[in-house]
Amino acid sequence: KRPAGAPDTQLAKPVRKVGVIGAGLMASQFALLFARKLRVPVLITDLDQSRVDKGLEYIRGEVDKMLDKGRLTADDANQIKDLVRGTTDKSQYADCDWVIEAVFEELGVKQQVFSEIESIISETAILATNTSSLSVHEIGERLSHPERLVGFHFFNPVAVMPLIEVVRTPTTNDESLATAMVIAKKLGKSAVITADRPGFVVNRLLAKVMGEAARALDAGTPLPVVERAFAPIGLPMGPFELIDLVGWKVAAHVQDTMVAAFPDRFYASENLHRLAEVEEPLVKSKLGKVEDLSK
Ligand code: CAA
């Protein structure tokens, strides 16, 4: 059955090569998923070779883990490793049919990335952004063909979380939307089409939970106590462990976006920004004693 608002899948374009811009944790996770599920060449790139190498190393490590668990045959593992290549030379993206970015969550940076890539790719290639909460329409403002841009929002950990938010802007055409829906299905994910509104659907809800947890922290409740207080409501992890997973900078950015969009509905926490500057994951440094505290 076709999901609400979904176009005819017949309109989807073939994807023979995927381009991923960014080689950070999110980008590396979905680059691997594209190679594993679509079995097409996947390129990753970043600001410099060392970041690209780090992404490739992560991907190869994850493939090895799947091999060890018996989830992949040795042939499959080798094929997947071979399909994912890294480069700092964007001209190699010229023949990609689908290019998705997961670079720094700043509007200007993402606009710049797409302007550059649009000058390289073919007229028919489709562009996607994994932005968590920025306006997809604004990200595409500098494109000559904004109709080919679609939001394609993954969740962490990409291999496990079943959902993709496919974001339709006022200009996204049916071909791009259909391609996104077909890709999501091939990746083994459920896709929902969401409007291009701050936080889409999931982050609008999560920012509430994280914001209230941050509010308790700001009011002086110790961090592990807030974490423990959330346990009985049955979430798979507490709010701060979840922030640790998605990244404190990302969480602080989502919160900023929501507060800017709806100042009367979302809470701006100074602490969240302060903690976002702490390098070491807080789960390891501060939450290690959560279990002890629950006694
Ligand atoms: N990468 C790949 N696989 C992972 C993984 C990772 N980072 N973390 C866990 N897994 C896999 C494990 O390998 C395991 O797979 P197998 O069964 O094949 O061995 C499976 O997931 C379950 O893992 P665990 O048994 O270790 O742990 P768990 O059952 O406690 O589940 C969890 C871990 C899936 C992370 C769970 O705690 C959970 O669902 N947490 C909530 C995650 C969530 O809400 N994510 C959305 C965040 S919002 C976001 O990402 C978007 C944004 O814009 C901010």
Automatic annotation (TrEMBL):
3-hydroxyacyl-CoA dehydrogenase NAD binding domain span: 17-196
Source organism superkingdom: Bacteria
3-hydroxyacyl-CoA dehydrogenase C-terminal domain sequence ranges: 199-286
Family: In the central section; belongs to the 3-hydroxyacyl-CoA dehydrogenase family.
Protein name: Enoyl-CoA hydratase/isomerase family protein
Range covered out of full length: 328 to 622 of 711
